[in-house]
Structure formats: C-alpha cells, structure tokens
Structure prediction request, 156 residues.
Amino acid sequence: MGSIFNMFGPSPIRPIEQHMRKTYLCAKQLYPFFEAVFKQQWETANTYKNKIVSIEKEADRIKRDLRLHLPTGLFLPVSRTDLLELLSAQDRIANKAEDIASLIISRQMVIPAPLSTMFMPFLNRCLDAAKQACKAINELDELLESGFRGSEVKSV
Prediction:
C-alpha cells in the first residue's frame, strides 16, 4: 500500500507560486531603484540593488529546492518538463532585474532626462506584465483543484 502512495508526491504548485512571488518582488524593486538612479542617488540605488540581489538569491533557493524535490513519479498534475520550463521563465525575470541593477550601479549609468519621461511608464508596463504573470501563477492551484474546467480555466 505504501508504494502506491509514493507515486503521488507533494504538489509542486505551491513552490512555483512562492518562486513567482519572489520573482515579482525582485522586479518590483526596479521602480524605486530607477527613481534613485534618475536623481543620481547612488547610495540609495545601491541599497535597492542589494535588495534585488538578496531577493533573487531567495528565489534561487526556492528554485533549487523545487528542482531537487520535484516528484518523478507518474502522477504529477502537469508535465515535469512544463513545470521546469515555467520555473526557468520565472527565474529569468529575477535574473534580468539583478543584471540590470548591477550593470547600472557598476557603471553609474546616467539616463538622460528626456528619456525619463518615456522610461518610467515603460518600466511600469513591464512591471504590470510581471504582476499579471504572478497573478496567473497564483491561480494555478485553484485551476488544478477544479480539474482544468469551469470558470477557473477562463480566469487563468
């Protein structure tokens, strides 16, 4: 009887959701980071960069733990490959946020003022996309519970 229950592992959806929340939190730090960069407040910008790096490391720990403990049994609710691809896509968001912040701080890049009027709305739009992705990922467990049918499918 124990061997049949070993085929069902813990759901990987919760850690995927946790990882996405960390990823989004990481990306969100870019807004105050760029506000400081536009004002050339390098100490403040560096503080936000360090925060981004720290959150990205937390996301990496979740990613690593999920990869190590992802069930290999027969009864995963979705394909293991799909989950790993989703995890990699989420991870790229946090990695890009870290890369951007590190590059700007290391070079103390000054963004021309005329660009700032276009840049911040662009950044907001990018953060909106990350927020929407986070919202969609956080709906996965409800979608799973509904058996991929009903109003939950349309919502997600």
